[in-house]
């Protein structure tokens, strides 16, 4: 039985970065939605079923931490990975993201971090569902 492709939303104002993420993720079996700014990314996040988000920190108009706050307000269960060229972002900037990496990390690091986020999300949901079923005798 084939598993359904998971959908990853990538948001980055640098076109070359965005295409690179898209090619890497699609080559690994993910479905990818792409946006070049926070506003478009929020609209795609709101109107599509998204399994995870890869989000650039520094973008014109709205930085990634601001986008993450809005996303968590809409769908708090969706994991968000923030990518930044800046080292040492404050805890305040990272409060609504589930993982952060500096840009320039290897593709293997990006993929393993994404897999960890998706596995954590899946484990949490299955644990919650099992608990709910046992409490409700379904």
Keywords, please?
5 strands; alpha/beta; 5 helices; Rossmann fold
In short:
This protein has 5 helices and 5 strands; from the N terminus they run βαβαβαβαβα. It has 138 residues and is of the alpha/beta class. The longest helix is centred in the C-terminal third of the chain and has 30 residues, at 107-136.
Can you offer a commentary on this structure?
It is a single chain. The protein has a single domain, classed as Rossmann fold, CATH 3.40.50. It has 5 helices and 5 strands, in the order E-H-E-H-E-H-E-H-E-H. It has helices at 15-27, 38-47, 64-74, 91-94, 107-136; strands spanning 7-11, 31-35, 52-56, 80-84, 99-102. Strands 2-1-3-4-5 form a 5-stranded parallel sheet, sandwiched between helices. Helix 2 (38-47) packs parallel to helix 3.
Strand content: 15-25%
User: What is the C-alpha radius of gyration, as a whole number of Å?
Assistant: 15 Å
> Count the strands?
5
User: What is the average per-residue confidence, as pLDDT, rounded to a whole number?
Assistant: 82
Quaternary state of this entry equals single chain
Name of the CATH superfamily? Response regulator
Q: Under the CATH scheme, which class?
A: Alpha Beta
Total helices: the number is 5
Distance between the termini: 26 Å
Instruction: Identify the CATH architecture.
Output: 3-Layer(aba) Sandwich
Helix content: 40-55%
| Spatial arrangement of strands, main beta sheet | 2-1-3-4-5
Structural class: alpha/beta
SSE order in H/E notation?
Answer: EHEHEHEHEH
From the spread of the alpha carbons, the general shape counts as globular
């Amino acid at each position: 039985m084939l598993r359904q492709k998971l959908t990853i939303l990538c948001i980055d104002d640098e076109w070359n970065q965005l295409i690179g993420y898209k090619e890497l993720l699609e080559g690994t079996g993910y479905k990818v939605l792409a946006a070049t700014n926070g506003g478009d990314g929020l609209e795609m996040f709101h109107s599509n079923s998204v399994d995870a988000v890869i989000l650039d920190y520094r973008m014109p108009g709205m930085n990634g931490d601001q986008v993450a706050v809005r996303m968590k307000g809409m769908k708090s269960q969706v994991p968000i990975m923030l990518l930044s060229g800046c080292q040492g972002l404050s805890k305040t900037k990272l409060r609504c993201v589930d993982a952060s990496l500096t840009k320039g990390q290897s593709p293997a690091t990006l993929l393993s971090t994404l897999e960890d986020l998706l596995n954590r999300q899946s484990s949490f949901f299955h644990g919650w569902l099992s608990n709910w079923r046992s409490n409700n005798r379904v």
